[in-house]
Amino acid sequence: MAPIPKPPAEPQDSPDTYVGLAADRAERLARDRGWSTVRSLPPGAIITMEYRSGRLNFEVKDGQVARAWKG
After folding, report:
1. Three-state secondary structure call for residue 68
2. One-character DSSP codes across 34-65
3. Considering the entire predicted model, what is its pTM?
4. How many Cβ atoms from other residues are within 10 Å of residue 9's Cβ?
5. Residue 1 domain-assigned?
6. Domain range enclosing 57
7. What distances in angstroms separate CA 12 from CA 1, 9, 22, 54, 70, one per listed residue?
8. What letter does residue 21 receive in the DSSP assignment?
């Protein structure tokens, strides 16, 4: 039987630190800090709720991050 793959560790980074930043700056910073996937979404976007380790989500309103969360 094949071993169960171990997901990569997430960066030790709080999503709250990105709120209020310009979206492009926040995305660059998140990638520099080790997030493998950064997803920018408009307010009210319909998304699936599966959790993906290493992904950081941004809700972007008027070019700024209004909300950020893992997964």
Report:
1. strand
2. T-SEEEEE-TT--------TTEEEEEEETTEE
3. 0.85
4. 9
5. no
6. 15-43+52-70
7. 33, 9, 21, 11, 11
8. S
Which two three-digit tokens encode residue 53?
């380790």
Instruction: Say how many domains are in the chain.
Output: 1
Is position 2 within any domain?
Answer: no
Does residue 66 surpass a pLDDT of 80?
yes
The first and second tokens of residue 38, run together, are 């950064």
Mean pLDDT of the chain: 93
3-state DSSP assignment of residue 31? helix
Supply 29's token pair: 């910073």
- pLDDT over 70 for what percent of the chain? 100
The tokens for 71 are: 């997964």
The Cα diameter of the chain in Å comes to 50
Handedness of CA 9, 10, 11, 13 (dihedral sign): negative
Check pLDDT > 80 for residue 19. yes
